[in-house]
Queue: 2 jobs
Job 1
Amino acid sequence: MTIAHEIGRILICGFFLAMVVKNMLSWQDNVKMVGQVLPFPRIALAIGFAVEVIGAVLVLFGIQPVAGAIILAGFVVVATVLFLRFWRAPDPMERHYITLLFTNNFAILGGILLLL
């Protein structure tokens, strides 16, 4: 394993763990956002956070890195399709921003797949 691989693994896992902390600090805002797309938003949000933490920890500590990477990849795909529906945004600036986030998520997915 190269230094670049190790740094990439730490950065990707750190990203997911930092997003969990950030999003937990904005719990109510996230409950409202998730509630627009899914039933039982508090439960869905808690499950999403758990999936992110479990996947990141498995990869970060090398416990089951392949399983962790698959979990993170699945999370990214599901979250992207559910919450970044750029094709539904009526405002061109909003559509552009959401499209950027959508494509960024697939770049993150690419990084995760490199962990496999």
Note: Residues 3-25 form the longest helix (23 residues).
Job 2
Amino acid sequence: MSDRLDAFLTRAEALLERLEAWLPPAPPPIDWRTTLACRWRRTAWRGWLEPVRMPDSPPWSALRHIDAQKEALDRNTRQFVQNLPANNALLVGSRGCGKSSLVKALLPRHAKRGLRLIEVDKADLIELPHIVHILPERPWRYLLFADDLSFEADEPAFKPLKAALDGSIAGLPDNVLIYATSNRRHLMPEYFAENAATRHLGGEVRPSDGIEEKLSLSDRFGLLLSFYPFDQDAYLDIVAGWVEALGGRITPALRAEALQWAIQRGVRSGRTARQFAMDWVGRQALKGRK
């Protein structure tokens, strides 16, 4: 019996050695003293945190005409990095109006106080419990960043996020917050057909349980910040801010070209303003090299 067991163990070890040759190597440990941001990556075999060597963090001063949103989110983040109570945050509203840029701009402002940023794709939110489990504790403070968030009714990541925000017995550790952005106030779609499930009792309207489920996720974010489209003057001021931040020059031709750029794209937004400023400053620099 002992000989058969020894033979079995020998064969098992040989098989494991052959399998390990096919597996990707384990990712190296992260030095959070020098790594400010990571992305969560996943293969069929495992998930891991991949350091971002050069985080895209726009200058704080270039984010204009969202002053109230900046002040509220910065204050919440200051509370967080100082080990004070703070809320998970949901930034909602018009596309290209600074939601994602605002979250990313927080990193250089608070990195010296221990803030670290981890970007998690929507599909990977199902792994939230594992991601949180492998994060070290103090002195680091982690923002889990989920960009452009919305869910269909059958997406598996919906319930883990809902439980992490508020509802699970485990919840989030004190050194982890979730900041998410979305173009939709309600993160799951609602359909006209669902109105048929509404019942009337006297003068009271009681929505169906399905509608309540869809509204409950956004309600779990303690801080809700709304973003709105910019008017023409605000758009031009944002363009000027980005041109200055990129080291370009403002000339009389800028206004007309910036407006034409927005008309071609059908939207006046912070993203459009930044894209125009990149083109404007790049063209100026190119002319100077001729």
Note: The mean pLDDT is 82.
